[in-house]
Design a protein that fits this description.
By secondary structure, the chain is of the alpha+beta class. The protein has a domain of about 90 residues. About 25% of the residues lie in helices and about 30% in strands. The protein has five helices and eleven strands. Strands 3, 4, 5, 6, 7, 8, 9 and 10 form an eight-stranded antiparallel beta sheet that branches. A three-stranded antiparallel beta sheet has the order 1-2-11. Strand 9 and strand 10 form a beta hairpin.
């Protein structure tokens, strides 16, 4: 009798249990099916290639009776005076440099009356064992100055492996300029912009 009552109780309880909604079961099945369908692999995101770092050449170095454009956040210092305080740079000859985390610029000059070819200055500004000329040597006349320019690579510092070097004649002096940059394409535009602001007392 006790078992009959228990069986009757279970039967009543199961009869009163809420019926499952067939629409909910369908929605569940559809969702599970959709989740199991493999999705297409997304196209890879295009690789961004480094663009030339912009530099502002609003600075102007004017000493030793010549002026040269340079980035505003860099200041030239007299390397000759640091190496030998008794022999600083002068109008006749000198060596100055400027640097920050993104650029290194060096400039040298010396008297060379009667000289028309600045090639020897290009050889002077390049450091043996560190700087290597690459590509073609460009020769042009800029505002009555014979100017030569060459792209370079350097092992002087791993963060600035590229650059350029140039030399030109202005009046009785020969000048040379060198730059180390993080990207190869930065060097020549920087030189051209710096030279566009170059003046010298002849």
């Amino acid at each position: 009798m006790r078992y009959h009552l228990l069986f009757l109780f279970v039967l009543i309880v199961s009869a009163c249990a809420p019926k499952s909604d067939p629409n909910a079961q369908i929605r569940q099945s559809v969702a599970a099916t959709l989740a199991a369908i493999p999705t297409n692999t997304q196209n890879p995101i295009p690789t961004a290639y480094p663009s030339p770092t912009p530099f502002n050449l609003s600075g102007l170095f004017c000493e030793y009776q010549f002026c040269m454009g340079h980035p505003n956040d860099m200041a030239f210092f007299d390397v000759s005076a640091q190496n030998n305080p008794a022999s600083p740079s002068t109008y006749s000859q000198g060596l100055v440099a400027a640097f920050n985390g993104n650029l290194f610029i060096q400039m040298i000059w010396q008297l060379a009356p009667g000289t028309a070819d600045p090639q020897f200055m290009l050889d002077l500004v390049l450091d043996d064992g560190l700087d290597t000329r690459v590509g073609n040597l460009e020769v042009k006349l800029v505002r009555d100055m014979n100017v030569i320019y060459s792209p370079i690579t350097t092992t002087a510092t791993p963060v600035l492996p590229f650059g350029g070097a140039a030399a030109w004649i202005c009046g009785e002096r020969a000048f040379a300029w060198k730059i180390y940059t993080p990207q190869a394409e930065n060097a020549q535009p920087l030189f051209e912009e710096a030279l566009a602001r170059f003046t010298c007392n002849k």
